[in-house]
Amino acid sequence: MRTEQITAKALKQVGDDRYKLALVVSKRAEAIANGADVLVELGNEKLKPADIALLEVAEGKIGLDAIVEKK
C-alpha cells in the first residue's frame, strides 16, 4: 500500500484531524524506537518507526486514547 493511502486511512481513524494524527504517530514512533512491540505484521519490509506507527493508526491498532496519560 502506498504512503498516501495509508495516511488517508489513518486520518479517517482520528476524525480527519492532522494535528491528532501527528501527535499519535510521533508518540507511538518514539515508543517503537524505544523498544515497544509492533502491533502490525511487517513481513520483510524494513520500515522506520514513524512509518510503522502510521500503519498501526491506519489499521486501528492504536489511537489517541492509547497515548493520553491517565491522571
Report on the architecture of this protein.
By secondary structure, the protein is mainly α. The protein has a single domain, classed as RNA polymerase subunit, RPB6/omega (Eukaryotic RPB6 RNA polymerase subunit). The chain has four helices and no strands. The longest helix has 16 residues. It is globular and about 30 Å long. The termini are far apart.
H-E order: HHHH
What is the CATH homologous superfamily assignment? RNA polymerase subunit, RPB6/omega
The level 1 CATH classification is Alpha Beta
Overall shape: it is: globular
Distance from N terminus to C terminus (CA atoms, Å) equals: 38 Å
Mean pLDDT: 89
Structural class: mainly alpha
**The CATH architecture:** Alpha-Beta Complex
The Rg value, from CA coordinates, equals 11 Å
Unreliable spans are: none
Number of extended strands = 0
Per DSSP, what share of the residues sits in E-state strands of 2 or more residues? under 5%
The amount of helix comes to 55-70%
Q: How many structurally independent domains?
A: 1
Total DSSP helices: 4
Topology-level CATH name: Eukaryotic RPB6 RNA polymerase subunit
InterPro entries: DNA-dir_RNA_pol_omega, Pol_omega/Rpo6/RPB6, RPB6/omega-like_sf
EC number: 2.7.7.6
Keywords: DNA-directed RNA polymerase, Nucleotidyltransferase, Transcription, Transferase
Function: Promotes RNA polymerase assembly. Latches the N- and C-terminal regions of the beta' subunit thereby facilitating its interaction with the beta and alpha subunits.
